[in-house]
Amino acid sequence: MLGLMSEKTIALVTGANKGIGYEIAAGLSALGWSVGVGARDEQRRTDAVAKLRAAGADAFGVPLDVTDDESVTAAARLIEERAGRLDVLVNNAGVAGGRPEEPSTVDLETVRRLVETNVMGVIRVTNAMLPLLRRSAHPRIVNQSSHVGSLALQTTPGVDLGGISGAYAPTKTFLNAVTVQYAKELSGTDILINNACPGYVATDLNGFSGTRTPEQGAAIAVRLAALPDDGPTGQMFDDSGVVPW
Q: How far is CA 53 from CA 22, 32, 47, 221, in A?
């Protein structure tokens, strides 16, 4: 298996069984890459892999719950046994808190749950996969952020980011800060790490109220995953370019 995989770019997308994550996996597969579909739900993961393979993709399932240490460790072991390295990690898995989300009334358990997945999950998976990424000639990390995590946009008069968000938006701000620190730590390596803003995409995260399709939302993550060696690092992007922190 290692010999067969040596010439292909190996990618892992978390939360890839549906929505934007699935379309990211599809977009990376279209580049001719071998893509791991990371998901905790076995049936949805199996169905997603089957659908991708039916379309000609080189996809494989990776059982992965980003909130569980053992699950993440097992996922890293699976990829090591399959390919010996990881070239691209897309931390896409995330959850929303629902409404109301005013900070004065938000349920603290909701905040903890969101931080566990949206921030700690990214750190947990990234740290588990870093040894495999360091074996890659062109390693890339893409974290799925959001415009609502931008403090600059949140404090710009006239910018409408959908109202008050006392739990979800702060987790994306937290994630942005974590990404900056990873970029500083990895500055002397070949690993490029950036955040992607998919826009307001219609997914179950927002009750399908978004105005963009999952395929449109996936485009920027796919582009960041395929950056050249002299590409940017430690920044946040949407389809139009750099998004301010």
A: 12, 12, 10, 21
> What is the pTM (predicted TM-score) of this model?
0.94
Chain length of the chain? 245
> Which bin fits 97, alpha (ψ -120 to 50), beta or left (φ > 0)?
alpha
The CA-based angle 230-129-95, given to 5 degrees, is 95
Q: Sheet of 236-238: strands edge to edge?
A: 58-63, 34-39, 10-13, 88-91, 140-144, 192-196, 236-238, 241-242
Active site residue 168: yes
Give CA separation, 38 vs 51, 125, 180, 189, 195, in Å: 14, 11, 24, 26, 19
Q: Between 210 and 86, whose confidence is greater?
A: 86
From CA 44, how far away is CA 128, in angstroms rounded? Answer: 24
